Every structure is written in C-alpha cells, then in structure tokens.
Amino acid sequence: MPTMPPVKPNDAIDLDFTGVFRIEELHTEPPPPAPRRPPEDIIIGARAVKKGNSFINMTRSRPARRIDPEKTTILLVEDDTTTRLILDLICRKAGYLTRQAADAPSFISAIQKKPLPDAVVLDVELPGNISGFKILGKMRAHPALRTLPVIILTVHSEPADLMQAVTLGTDAYLTKPASARSFLDALSAVLGSAAAQKA
After folding, report:
1. Which of 36, 71, 151, 174 is the most exposed place for a label (fewest CB within 10 A)?
2. What global pTM score does this model have?
3. Please, are residues 124 and 133 in contact by the beta-carbon 8 Å criterion?
C-alpha cells in the first residue's frame, strides 16, 4: 500500500527547500582570504568593526516606504538564549512582531510559517557547526528568499568575514555587542523605512 506524503499545516508557506537547505551543506568553512585591496567602503567598514563599533553596510538600496511595525515580522536566528531574548525585547518594544530560531532546523521551520518574515537577523555561528554565512548563501539562491532583507549580527569582525558577508548579499553587518539604537537603525534601513532613509 503506497504511503501518503505528510500534510503540511495550513500556516506553512509552501517553499521548496529541496536541494537548498540541506543541513549537511551548512557546516562552517574557513572564510576566504581577504583580497589585497578590497573596495574602499569595505576597508572603512572593516576598520570600524575592528574598533569594536557596530557597522552597517547597505549592499542593496531599498525603495523608501512607510513601515508599520505592528505588521512587520522579524525572524531572529541566534543560538544564545540571552542574546535572542534581548533582541526580541528590543524588537517588541519598537512595535515589531518577532519569530525566533536557535539553530538551522528551527530556522527552516520558522521561515516557512505564514507570513514570510519581513527581515532576518542572522548569527554566524550556530549549533552543530552550522554557518550563518552558508544559510545566507542558500537564502540568496532561493527564489522566494533572494531579496529578503538580512542583517548579520556576529562577534566576527575580521575584514575577511565582512567581505564574505557582503559578497553573499547581506544587507547589514553588525558586530556584537551592538547598541539597541544601532540595531534598530539597521533594521529600519534594511526594511526601507522612509525615516531611516532621511537620516
């Protein structure tokens, strides 16, 4: 007797992750060597990061639009519970809706829930030696996630890490610890908030 395929819950988005989000392909690899002369804006950003400051690098311009936080969902992908709860609190105080994930499987589950999140905040080091950079690369290869705004939030501050994130298509890059103001500014910027674009 043939087996029936599992029924997806009604609140799941029908995203085809076949060949995209295979956990075994998300393991960390050493970053590529930094080029001898990276673009000037990357050099400036990398220096700012090395000083311990947060750094925002917009790799894609977004059309200015009014953002209604109460209708805007932010997916927080962070394995450290304390950090994730702090980010959740910051987002909720600003009026945003949130969704949380602590590892790659919970990220895949969370991103398939309706509605698709409006932005993703992504750590680089996740449990099981999973790389946030790999997740970002897979997102950019997926038709439904290609333009979804992503903020990398990480302790990694080397120029090679920054270059890798920018090359893979991050919209912003923040180093930990980032201030709540820097984090919210980055969020507004990647979402295309009209207020952020005037700043």
Report:
1. 36
2. 0.74
3. yes
Residues listed for the chain = 199
- For residues 168 and 136, what is the distance between their CA atoms, to the nearest angstrom? 7
- Hey, where are the domains in the chain? 39-198
Residue 22 CA to residue 49 CA, distance in Å, equals: 31
Which CATH number is 39-198 given?
Answer: 3.40.50.2300
Angle at CA of residue 179, ends 132 and 41, nearest 5°? 65
**Lowest-confidence range among 51-60, 108-117, 127-136, 181-190?**
51-60
The whole-chain average pLDDT of the chain stands at 75
Which residue is listed with tokens 């392909």? 25
Determine what percent of the chain is predicted with pLDDT higher than 70.
63
Tokens of 40: 């000037």
Strand partners, 120: 75, 150
